[in-house]
Amino acid sequence: MRDWFNARDRGRASGILNSASTLGTGFAAPLLTTLMLLFGWRWMFAIMGLLGIGAAVIWFALYRNPSQVALTEAEHHYRTAGDAPEVARPVTFVVVTAFVSSNTVAVACLCGAMFCGTVATTCAWAMASITAPANSTGSLGSLQNFGGYLGGALAPIVTGFIVQGTGSFVPALIVGAAMCVFAAVSYFVILRRPITPEDFQPRSRGGTDLASRLEANG
Q: Could you tell me which residues come within 8 angstroms of residue 85 by beta carbon, excluding any fewer than 6 positions away?
């Protein structure tokens, strides 16, 4: 995303890319069921594997890095200009879900929370391409992705223990809302400015760049 899209357009591009995983989950169940009923479960896996390999081959054949394309000065400026997006937060919907008595309202709030969570995820991915240097975007994105999957794995376990111990989903929803607040505050506190290559330089306890100090000492 960072290589080809302006900072103001990376959120939209990331949203389209991330929507594929959600849409894919929705289409997968009827598609895989149809393939399994027609050809058996072994051929179902084989067909999906061949489709994946085909998609990878097409991507490899068509995709080019910016350095491989003769871009104009205006196109280079488009790729690097722009400001960071804001981060959306689903806290309100989660809190309301915990205290409403109507199942319809609770389901609607959960849908709203999922929508806002997806928007926040898209903004976070776009922010990784803006706040980090070009050679560190992948590392920052990987750390975010690892945290997301780790939270996704722990969430049902923690929720189960909370519900088992309290007999109610209300505390579990409150904990989820608190985690959203913590994540939002972390972004605002930690990401005060873009990360520069100088931030990766080792520093001494006094704050002086360690490489400069060693050079001064001969």
A: 7, 8, 10, 11, 123, 126, 127, 130
- Return the residue matching tokens 């520069």: 196
- Taking alpha carbons only, the member of 16, 9, 134 closest to residue 82 is 9
Distant-in-sequence, close-in-space partners of 41: CB < 8 Å, separation ≥ 6: none
Question: Are residues 127 and 15 in contact, defined by beta-carbon separation less than 8 angstroms?
Answer: no
- Whether pTM exceeds 0.70: no
Amino acid, res. 81: A
Q: What are the per-10-residue average pLDDT scores of the chain (218 residues)?
A: 68 72 80 90 90 89 78 72 48 67 79 78 72 72 81 85 85 84 81 67 53 46
Structure tokens at 75: 């196109």
**Helix/strand/coil percentages in the chain, nearest 5:** 80, 0, 20
Q: Which tokens belong to 61? A: 């054949």
